[in-house]
């Protein structure tokens, strides 16, 4: 591993660890503080202030960084190696690539925050951000499971599973090119994983176990060789079975 690669990996690991520590701290606050001292989003959507929306958005944004940045490390490693060969240095280009990748997920976090806002208004979520509507939880699992079998899922997943192929086919020169490639990869990753992220609503928005489970699942999908397509189908079956269990419970 070159000095550039080691520095970039250390930077990514620092960001990832910081994000997980923040999530753990928030989880600790929710499980340790008395209800009277705890911030909770209002069930009445008309009572939400900008502060409420910002706190919910920050939670989702950090969650996306913590969950999705580890899964991007194989792609970042390949991109860094190519940048070293072309530019002799890779730090600036790789950081722009990673930043652009995260921009996609940070924008998606706005949609997740707005969806949570509506779910509170419909009383689907408790003030502790846990799902209290089994049928909706089942629908979310069913949606995530069904998406695993679609051509769109397979198309986006293939892009994430073959870092070298993505870099060679989508290569753009310069710093602007690095940003464009990061957006392209982030968009493909979002297209692959958006339905799985909705499962966080079903298992509890601040469920650390749910976060770890989905992170490991996404990471496994990305590193499994492309010829093992049955893995994604198996995940889809798992989600669908989980959905049926919720429907009949």
TrEMBL record:
<keyword id="KW-0472">Membrane</keyword>
<feature type="transmembrane region" description="Helical">
    <location>
        <begin position="135"/>
        <end position="151"/>
    </location>
</feature>
<keyword id="KW-1133">Transmembrane helix</keyword>
<feature type="transmembrane region" description="Helical">
    <location>
        <begin position="197"/>
        <end position="218"/>
    </location>
</feature>
<feature type="transmembrane region" description="Helical">
    <location>
        <begin position="91"/>
        <end position="115"/>
    </location>
</feature>
<protein>
    <submittedName>
        <fullName>Predicted metal-binding membrane protein</fullName>
    </submittedName>
</protein>
<feature type="transmembrane region" description="Helical">
    <location>
        <begin position="54"/>
        <end position="79"/>
    </location>
</feature>
<feature type="transmembrane region" description="Helical">
    <location>
        <begin position="230"/>
        <end position="248"/>
    </location>
</feature>
<keyword id="KW-0812">Transmembrane</keyword>
<dbReference type="Pfam" id="PF09948">
    <property type="entry name" value="PpoB2"/>
</dbReference>
<dbReference type="InterPro" id="IPR018688">
    <property type="entry name" value="PpoB2-like"/>
</dbReference>
<feature type="transmembrane region" description="Helical">
    <location>
        <begin position="7"/>
        <end position="25"/>
    </location>
</feature>
């Amino acid at each position: 591993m070159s000095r550039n690669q080691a520095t970039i990996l250390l930077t990514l690991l620092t960001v990832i660890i910081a994000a997980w520590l923040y999530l753990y701290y928030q989880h600790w606050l929710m499980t340790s503080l008395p209800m009277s001292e705890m911030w909770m989003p209002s069930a009445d959507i008309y009572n939400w202030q900008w502060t409420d929306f910002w706190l919910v958005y920050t939670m989702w944004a950090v969650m996306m960084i913590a969950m999705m940045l580890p899964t991007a490390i194989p792609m970042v490693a390949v991109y860094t190696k190519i940048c070293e060969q072309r530019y002799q240095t890779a730090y600036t280009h790789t950081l722009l690539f990673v930043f652009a990748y995260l921009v996609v997920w940070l924008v998606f976090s706005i949609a997740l925050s707005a969806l949570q806002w509506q779910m509170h208004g419909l009383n689907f979520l408790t003030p502790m951000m846990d799902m209290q509507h089994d049928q909706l939880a089942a629908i979310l699992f069913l949606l995530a499971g069904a998406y695993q079998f679609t051509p769109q899922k397979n198309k986006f997943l293939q892009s994430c599973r073959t870092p070298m192929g993505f870099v060679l086919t989508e290569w753009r020169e310069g710093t602007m090119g690095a940003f464009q490639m990061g957006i392209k990869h982030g968009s493909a990753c979002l297209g692959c994983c958006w339905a799985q992220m909705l499962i966080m609503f079903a298992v509890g928005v601040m469920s650390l176990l749910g976060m770890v489970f989905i992170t490991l699942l996404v990471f496994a999908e990305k590193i499994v060789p492309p010829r093992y397509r049955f893995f994604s189908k198996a995940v889809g079956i798992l989600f669908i079975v989980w959905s049926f269990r919720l429907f009949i419970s």
